[in-house]
UniProtKB/TrEMBL annotation:
It holds the Pfam family MMR_HSR1. The gene is hflX. This is GTPase HflX. Mg(2+) binds at residues 199, 219. One of its GO terms (molecular function) is metal ion binding. GTPase that associates with the 50S ribosomal subunit and may have a role during protein synthesis or ribosome biogenesis.
Amino acid sequence: MKAIGVIRKSRRERIRREEFEELLRSAGYEVVAILEQNREEHPKYNIGKGKLEELKELVRELWPDKVIFANKLTPSQAYNLWKELRVEIIDKWQLVLEIFEKRAHSKEAKLQVELASLQYEVPLVKEAIRRIKLGDRAGFKGMGEYQTQQYLKHIHYRMGKIRKELERIKADREVKRKRREEVGFILLALAGYTNAGKSTLLNTLAREEIEARNQMFTTLDTTTRRFKLGGKRVLVTDTVGFIDGLPPFIVEAFHSTLEEIVKADIVLLVLDVSEPWPEIRRKFLASLNVLRELKTLDKPMVVVLNKRDLTSEEDVKDKAERIMEIVTERGINVSRVVSISAKFGQLEELYGALEEVVLTLPKYGAFEITVREPEKVPQVMALTSAIGEVLSVEYGEETKIEAYIQTGMIKELTRLGVKIRRLNQPEHRESLKDSEGDEYRR
């Protein structure tokens, strides 16, 4: 389909043409023209009357299927523009929802997209009802007043049903998440701006082949895969990408998916380091805003500068330092800033950072496991190796095993009749020092 794009820039709205055009292409539109204007918002048309006349000429000349605004339109503005242009009018967030609808595959993702679309449609229907009562328009989508009122009731009914279904899916996921924690998994969540390379990173970490394309919003379905970090078992989850100014109705609709970030032990915030610094800064701050809205900025976070193969070492180092300046200035809990190339499997810095951060998690610690019955040593060793990392073993009348394990697995070990004592967290795993600590007994 053919589309004309409209961008209005102002002091409050700094819209990037390149990103808007990329959104249009991702939605499958042929962009026949882009109209730009620098001015504050016009209350009736969003753009000025002179620019509206110019847009009319383009519509008559190019016959587009839609006119798409990069700015958010009020229901009244959308109607006024339709009345003048007589062509379908949508804005950036309706465009994003169109992309979401094409990319949603799982039942949950489809429900989330439908909920977001219905939430967006409610004010449009209410505006249509107001217009009908003023005698200004013959209904919504060709419907009369009564039909439009009934349609609004249907929207609210359908939204209620979707929310209940998403709550059920959320409850099922919560059961799975608790079980994963019980069996000793560390939970990582990939977060960041759309098209930063999160899916490629998941594929490299877990040796998978999940779809990863160089386009916006490839991932809508939550994907979780496992991998090993040393002797530790880790689950990594890919989540929907962020975009600047992500509106509350999309955050709400996708909350059950974004909750994977909320429930994670560590957040990996992925950025494309090959982009110019102003773009990296903008996307970093936009991502932080979403994480702040999700109330996850207090979690351990590793900032991952991806695609380092597309730029120089000096450039990567400079951008990493600038990221840390922002982090320090704003008091954000960032454990490390690392650079990687997910495409070429260059993840050494990331592995090292994760090893360090995991050891600081409250759920993961150093313990001394004392086995009094020799015949149980092989069983205890096997279980300890499966749920953590054995550091040293001292055989004797009582076998003493020093290991890093997840605290949630202590109950599993005590069922074997062992004694468990927490050790001081060492600066290095090789230099464990005993200390009197809490004892966990059967």
